[in-house]
Amino acid sequence: MNLLAAFIFFTRLPFWRLKDVPSDCFKHVVPYWPMVGWLTGGIMVGVLWLGSHVFPVSMAWMLAIVVRLLITGCLHEDGLADFLDGFGGGSTRERTLTIMKDSHIGTYGVIGLIVYFLLMMQIGHLPLPTLCLLAFCGDCWSKFCAAQIINFLPYARKEEESKAQVVYHQMNCKEFICCLIGGLPSLLLLPMKLWLSLVGSYLVSAYLIRLMKRRLQGYTGDCCGATFLLCELAFYLIGFIIIYY
Description:
Strand content: under 5%
Mean pLDDT: 91
Number of helices: 11
Order of helices and strands: HHHHHHHHHHH
Number of domains: 1
Radius of gyration: 17 Å
Structural class: mainly alpha
Largest sheet: none
Number of strands: 0
């Protein structure tokens, strides 16, 4: 049931039609986030592969990114923009949280998203088979890295102040194993020379968790989305460097 809740929460696909999910299940969706990556990453690969038969690989990669934006409802990108606005414009814990909760996007968020997507577009210059492999593994592994936030930090706001009205519970042993299984395809599919991408993503998540602890003494949903995208970007960029240099 928690797995279904994760698919409902992290995508805009009509999984909610399959079964009514108790609201308490949504407090346990983060451990299953990497498994959602199997779907979103798999769809990206499918669009990329099919699109490459009609368009150049770089354009097919753009289409794959757009499709994931539609599937997730820009959930993570909204988090990244709010995260950048909050940490860029806030000097105190209270001010940072206030800015992150504001629905308006600021200068840091706009520029940050532009830079993010410009860097993502460069990944489209990789060979198609390699790009497909990185797209799938990067989605799953980066969500595993980002999911670790809830194991190290408390929620920074009260539950009623949450945008989604949900405060995630820390993982128990069973949930951590499920989370790890969700990230395993990356270890099993990637050649050893690209394992540095896995390490790089995890180090980015560790740095961001440390940053959140120092600034917020906790995390928010926006922090989760931002961490996923930044870990994934690091994964791609390191892989890009290894392949070309």
